[in-house]
């Protein structure tokens, strides 16, 4: 028996059928040889190179092989993945473990840093440097995985490790595993359906097993019809679409959460994608509201992260925007599996298109705020709406205000598209009159006071009326 | 300088500025506050001040008038004015405010003034930093803090200030001022229209004068022009947004929402407040219980807008709730039939 079977019934298949021994790992003979040789060097004493970088496409067995080796050689595995790199305290914990002398009785340790290509240059500043330091001081083996090891930012890392290549799994490799699972689970599986699932997995065994489980779970059979219905054709160029789809169709909360990690999207981009497409996917109105409640709470966590810098909160935000959204859909669960055309977040496009006019609006708000001794936001909500009314209805009054506030032609256009040319004309006329007048008045040296005198005293006014 | 001044004889200031009292004696309301402030002028000395009260009740005006009466028309030379809503971080306090506070005192005055408007929007860090400045430079600099909600000012600052409470303006104060402006401008105005403006402005003088000027721009200030102006200034789109959501058209409502936020530049808070204004209107056909439920949810969303990162997500949540409530309203109606 190759795959462990006597496990709790509800365990997700990709965990249930995770390789326990090196032999369980499908194919990848080259990689196995290199890695085991290197581990043996460690067990014997000090190896030449202290870290290994396993690279290859997703789902080809990189992490599985490390786990299988740890299991077989009785090594203690210390794991860390992409979402943890931004926490300095976690990296430091790993560093301590990596540098830890092995006690006489205790096990050898292996440190696994998963998805190092997921380290972001901006958000995880210093993470790579820390990892390089860890390698320097390590006295335990450090194994890293990556899909794309040729990323320029990983260059210093490449020089410090042995590189172990994993090949993309063939369709036959994948089909073999799938039919084994089918017979173990007692699920009737069409040859044609397994072909279809293996084909669309593009060598990603993990996604193939997930797909198989999605189809089998609901119906306890895997036919080509069901498979085609439930599994939308994958489109590599549109990664984000796939992530959103996976979030909706996931059977388990961890699957939904995992989908968020299998993407280049940052959490604040991902939440935009979900926000855009949620109402396209969900049909029941109560489901939609419940899902939005989850998204709303995710956003509150995001806000707190921004305000406090506490990145620990990130996982709550991600859990709510993925699993929280997906499992809010309970009235019409079928709607989750509907094929809908997803859309790029429209707001991002709109924001780009309107950048100039928004900048203009900000500049105008600043002028008005300074003039009326208020904040920009109250200028925008309390004064500018009334300015628009004036500019749309009274060109002379508008021109005089434009002159007093020294508004640009574009600002006048913003306040009244239909009257702008006439107002601008009036402004220029007034301005030239001012020029003539100021010559005379400066001789008199009186300026604005002439006008101010005209305002009667309010106290007198009250007495008179 | 002369050139700019004379340009204003042809140019038209916004009426809120043109008719803003320049001196304390020109202020016709907040008599108790004004009387105590005039005492400071007499003594040529004052403590740090905290002006608290609703918007449009004369807090900023009083601060400027006080400075004017202390230093004369060129008072701005001796005063740093900041709006804490726009510049509310600790950097501003440590930078601009500190530089100004510690700078040398001109020989002709006994202290400078820092005016911090909307100080209740300052971050807690900034307030702590401010508190130290208030102690260190009290011999050369006095602070005037202005706030709608004084409870958002930290206790140690409150206890260092003389607190002045500004009350909502009375109807006769606002209507009288509007009438006076109309007469100065030679604008015909109906008495009834001025009362409508007072009702809409909720005791906020700035709002009242803005409505008055916009109404006057239509020719005469009549009741119908006032309502027209208010309707134009608050885009109908908010009403339509509300109706679309209640009718169950989520996607259309969201498009409208984006238009309002991105094209019109309304903030999430503006939209929540404008929806709030609509929900008790008789134009909106809704079971009474649901109006209250919407109000409750609006409050929740307004809170999350402050806490959250992305306003559209919070308002999307609001729209989704309105869709659910709209559906409930329709089924309630049917069961009555």
User: Per DSSP, what share of the residues of chain B sits in E-state strands of 2 or more residues?
Assistant: 5-15%
What multimeric state do the chains show?
heterodimer
Topology-level CATH name of the largest domain in chain A: Rossmann fold
Name the biggest interface: A-B, 82 and 74 residues
Keywords:
heterodimer, A: 465 residues, alpha/beta, Rossmann fold, five-stranded parallel beta sheet, two-stranded parallel ribbon, 7 strands, disordered N terminus, B: 337 residues, Helicase, Ruva Protein, domain 3, Zinc Finger, Delta Prime, domain 3, 3 domains, 16 helices
Describe this structure in words.
The complex is a heterodimer of chains A (465) and B (337). Chain A has 465 residues and is α/β, with parallel strands linked by helices. Chain A has three domains: 28-165, P-loop containing nucleotide triphosphate hydrolases (Rossmann fold); 240-352; 355-439, no CATH class. Chain A contains 23 helices and seven strands. Chain A has helices spanning 13-16, 29-44, 62-72, 88-98, 127-137, 155-158, 171-185, 191-201, 205-219, 224-230, 239-249, 253-261, 267-281, 285-308, 314-326, 346-353, 355-372, 376-393, 395-405, 409-415, 420-444, 449-454, 458-464, and strands at 51-55, 76-80, 109-113, 142-146, 161-165, 188-189, 221-222. A five-stranded parallel beta sheet of chain A has the order 2-3-4-1-5, sandwiched between helices. A two-stranded parallel sheet of chain A has the order 6-7. In chain A, strand 2 (76-80), helix 4 and strand 3 form a beta-alpha-beta unit. In chain A, helix 4 (88-98) packs parallel to helix 5 (127-137) and helix 8 packs across helix 9. Chain A starts with 12 loop residues before the first helix and ends with a helix. In chain A, 40% of the residues are buried. With 337 residues, chain B is an alpha/beta fold. Chain B folds into three domains: 2-165, P-loop containing nucleotide triphosphate hydrolases (Rossmann fold), CATH 3.40.50.300; 171-233, Helicase, Ruva Protein, domain 3 (Orthogonal Bundle), CATH 1.10.8.60; 237-336, Up-down Bundle (Zinc Finger, Delta Prime, domain 3). Chain B contains 16 helices and five strands. In chain B, strands 2-3-4-1-5 form a five-stranded parallel beta sheet. In chain B, helix 5 links the parallel strand 2 and strand 3 (112-117). Chain B is globular, with a radius of gyration of 24 Å. Residues 1-8 of chain B have low confidence and may be disordered. At the A-B interface, helix 13, helix 14, helix 16, helix 17 and helix 18 of A face helix 1, helix 2, helix 8, helix 10 and helix 11 of B.
């Amino acid at each position: 028996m190759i795959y462990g079977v006597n496990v709790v019934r509800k365990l997700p298949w990709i965990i249930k059928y995770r390789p326990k021994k090196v032999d369980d790992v499908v194919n990848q003979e080259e990689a196995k040889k290199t890695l085991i040789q290197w581990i043996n060097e460690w067990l014997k004493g000090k190896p030449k190179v202290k870290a290994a970088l396993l690279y290859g496409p997703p789902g080809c067995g990189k992490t599985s092989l490390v786990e299988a080796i740890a299991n077989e050689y009785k090594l203690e595995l210390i794991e860390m993945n992409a979402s943890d790199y931004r926490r300095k305290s976690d990296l430091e914990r790993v560093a301590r473990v990596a540098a830890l002398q092995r006690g006489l009785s205790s096990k050898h340790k292996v440190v696994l840093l998963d998805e190092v290509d997921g380290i972001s240059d901006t958000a995880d500043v210093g993470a790579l440097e820390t990892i390089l330091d860890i390698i320097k001081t390590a006295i335990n083996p450090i194994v890293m995985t990556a899909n794309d090891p040729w990323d320029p930012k990983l260059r210093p890392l490449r020089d410090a490790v042995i590189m172990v290549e994993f090949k993309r799994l063939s369709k036959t490799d994948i089909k073999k595993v799938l039919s084994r699972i089918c017979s173990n689970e007692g699920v009737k599986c069409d040859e044609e359906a397994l072909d279809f699932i293996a084909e669309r997995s593009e060598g990603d065994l993990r996604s193939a097993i997930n797909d198989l489980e999605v189809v089998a779970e609901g119906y306890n059979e895997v036919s080509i019809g069901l498979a085609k219905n439930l599994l939308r054709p994958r489109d590599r160029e549109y990664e984000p679409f796939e992530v959103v789809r996976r979030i909706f169709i996931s059977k388990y909360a961890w699957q939904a959460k995992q989908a968020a990690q299998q993407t280049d999207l940052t959490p604040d981009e991902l939440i935009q994608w979900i926000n855009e497409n949620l109402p396209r996917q969900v049909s029941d109105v109560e489901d939609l509201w419940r899902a939005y409640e989850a998204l709303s709470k995710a956003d509150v966590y995001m806000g707190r992260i921004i305000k406090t810098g506490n990145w620990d909160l990130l996982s709550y935000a991600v859990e709510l925007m993925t699993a929280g959204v997906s499992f809010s859909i309970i009235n019409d669960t079928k709607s989750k599996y509907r094929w809908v055309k997803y859309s790029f977040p429209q707001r991002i496009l709109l924001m780009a298109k309107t950048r100039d006019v928004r900048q203009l609006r900000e500049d105008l708000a600043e002028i008005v705020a300074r003039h009326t001794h208020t904040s920009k936001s109250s200028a925008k909500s309390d004064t500018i709406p009334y300015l628009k009314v004036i500019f749309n209805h009274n060109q002379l009054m508008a021109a005089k205000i434009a002159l007093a506030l020294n508004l640009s032609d574009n600002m006048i256009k913003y306040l009244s598209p239909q009257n702008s040319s006439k107002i601008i004309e009036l402004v220029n006329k007034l301005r030239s009159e001012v020029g003539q007048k100021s010559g005379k008045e400066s001789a008199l040296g009186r300026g604005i006071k002439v006008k101010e005198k005209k305002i009667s005293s309010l106290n007198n006014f009250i007495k008179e009326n | 300088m002369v050139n700019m001044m004379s340009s204003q004889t042809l140019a038209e200031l916004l009426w809120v500025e043109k008719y803003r009292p320049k001196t304390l004696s020109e202020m016709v309301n907040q008599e108790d506050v004004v009387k105590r402030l005039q005492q400071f002028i007499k003594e040529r000395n004052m403590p740090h001040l905290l002006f608290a009260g609703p918007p449009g009740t004369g807090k900023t005006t009083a601060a400027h008038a006080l400075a004017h009466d202390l230093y004369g028309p060129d008072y701005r030379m001796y005063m740093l004015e900041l709006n804490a809503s726009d510049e509310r971080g600790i950097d501003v306090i440590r930078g601009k405010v500190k530089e100004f506070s510690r700078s040398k005192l001109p020989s002709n005055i006994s202290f400078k003034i820092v005016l911090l408007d909307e100080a209740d929007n300052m971050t807690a860090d900034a307030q702590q930093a401010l508190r130290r400045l208030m102690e260190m430079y009290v011999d050369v600099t006095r602070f005037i803090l202005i706030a709608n909600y004084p409870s958002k000012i930290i206790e140690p600052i409150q206890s260092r200030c003389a607190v002045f409470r500004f009350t909502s303006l009375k109807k006769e104060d606002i209507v009288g001022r509007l009438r006076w402006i109309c007469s100065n401008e030679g604008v015909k105005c109906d008495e009834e229209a001025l009362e409508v403006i007072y009702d809409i402005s909720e005791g906020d003088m700035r709002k009242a004068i803005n409505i008055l000027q916009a109404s006057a721009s239509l020719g005469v200030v009549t009741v119908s022009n006032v309502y027209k102006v208010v309707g134009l200034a608050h885009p109908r789109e908010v009403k339509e947004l509300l109706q679309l959501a209640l009718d169950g058209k989520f996607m259309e409502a969201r498009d409208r929402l984006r238009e309002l936020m991105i094209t019109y530049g309304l903030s999430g808070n503006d939209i929540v407040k404008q929806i709030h204004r609509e929900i008790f209107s008789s134009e909106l056909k809704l079971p009474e219980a649901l109006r209250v439920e919407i109000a409750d949810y609006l409050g929740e969303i307004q809170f999350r807008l402050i806490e959250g990162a992305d306003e559209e997500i919070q308002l999307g949540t609001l729209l989704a709730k309105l869709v659910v409530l709209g559906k409930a309203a329709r089924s309630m109606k049917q069961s009555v039939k």
